[in-house]
Write a structure and sequence with these properties.
With 145 residues, the protein is of the alpha/beta class. The protein contains five helices and six strands. It has a single domain, classed as 3-Layer(aba) Sandwich (Rossmann fold). A six-stranded mixed sheet has the order 3-2-1-4-5-6, with helices on both faces. The model has no long low-confidence stretch (mean pLDDT 95). The structure holds magnesium ion. InterPro entries: HAD-like_sf (IPR036412).
């Protein structure tokens, strides 16, 4: 499965730290045979990938559409269809299906969201859905809360 992660507040905090468990979870996702892509509404965030040494995990780094999500994939030169999206921005998750995560800000906060994300991915692989309330099926209609 092609799994797309957002950057700001999803894997990266305001203090420039990675969300706890990010690299461990990325490794598990790769071990399970999936591909990881990183995208951001702020553009291609290679500086984040390099600073946190994420190159070995990722199959591509792209700019993320912030509206007309499906239509803009071509314009943004994203060569693959996102099959599962992890984001703190609910609209993009609803468009492609995936996991909405509460924003991550600072390394001092206790945060187990990466484990939760991984469990939801496993649920989805096994059953095509998840009971977790942070899971969003593709095409979910807003409002989400
Ligand atoms: Mg974000």
């Amino acid at each position: 499965m092609k799994i797309f992660f957002d950057v700001d507040y999803t894997i990266l905090g305001l203090d420039d730290t990675l969300r706890p468990g990010t690299t461990e979870t990325f490794q598990k996702i790769l071990d399970d045979g999936h591909e990881i892509y990183i995208w951001s509404g702020m553009g291609e965030r290679w500086e984040v990938i390099e600073k946190h040494e994420l190159e070995r995990f990722v199959s591509g780094v792209y700019e993320k559409p912030t509206h007309h999500f499906h239509e803009r994939l071509v314009e943004l030169k994203i060569p693959v269809e996102p099959e599962f999206v992890i984001d703190d921005y609910p609209e993009v998750v609803a468009a492609f299906g995936g996991v909405w995560v509460p924003p991550y800000f600072f390394s001092r906060s206790i945060d187990n969201e990466m484990d939760r994300i991984y469990r939801i991915i496993c649920d989805f692989i096994e059953t095509g859905a998840s009971e977790d309330r942070q899971y969003r099926a593709k095409g979910t209609k807003l409002p989400l809360f």
